[in-house]
Amino acid sequence: MRNADRGWYASSDHYKISTLFIFGEFLAIVRSIERELGYLPHESTNRGKSFNAKVYGPFRAMTSFAYFRTVAADADDIGASGVPRLMLTAIGEKMLTEQGRVREFTDFATLFSNDPRFRKWFDDLDKFLLEATTINELSWDRLIALGANLRLLVTFLDPKSKLLDQRDVANLDLIKNQQVRSALNAEIAEQ
């Protein structure tokens, strides 16, 4: 976020493909979880409820109006600033092989470069990332909320920092809309 002004996403094919792959990888993992655990009563315990909230937090940031309820902006503009939820599901599905494993980067890069139908699934995500880093303040705020939610998910999954060093939620000071910042801060305080 702090290097967005360098334009790496817009100007570097490698940076763009790598970023889309990482998003796709996350979406594939979530899709796998949905397939495996989707019908279990995982919300019947406090830990299960917390897991569910953390896994779907990034989706809330990218797709819903949750952080924008009090923002003085047109509802159509708020809606257009995100990514349609089912497109994220579709990306997750396309990122899984027939054996149910997440695609490797080389497989993804080859498909993305050579298969227009495969690449088409990523159009909304690509547009979101490009606009967030260049022209759209609402998308920018969504991207920061997404990062915050991903940090909360990592902390939840690895509370003792066995796999990753714990890092605080970052970039909240870069949020453009005070109402979004307040909503996100309130949510983080509840964790």
Outline:
The protein is mostly helical.
Can you walk through the features of this model?
With 191 residues, the protein is an all-alpha fold. It has one domain. It contains ten helices and no strands. The longest helix has 25 residues, at 13-37. The chain starts with 7 loop residues before the first helix and ends with a helix. The model has no long low-confidence stretch (mean pLDDT 89).
How are the secondary structure elements laid out?
Elements: H1 8-11, H2 13-37, H3 46-63, H4 75-80, H5 85-94, H6 105-114, H7 116-120, H8 123-132, H9 137-157, H10 178-189
Q: Biggest sheet, in brief?
A: none
How many strand elements?
0
| Amino- and carboxy-terminal Cα gap | 23 Å
Instruction: Estimate the strand proportion.
Output: under 5%
State the helicity in percent bands. 55-70%
Alpha-beta content class:
mainly alpha
Shape: globular
Integer count of domains: 1
Query: Helix segment count?
Result: 10
Overall mean pLDDT stands at: 89
Give the uncertain stretches in residue-range form: none
Gyration radius, in Å: 17 Å
What's the order of the H and E elements? HHHHHHHHHH
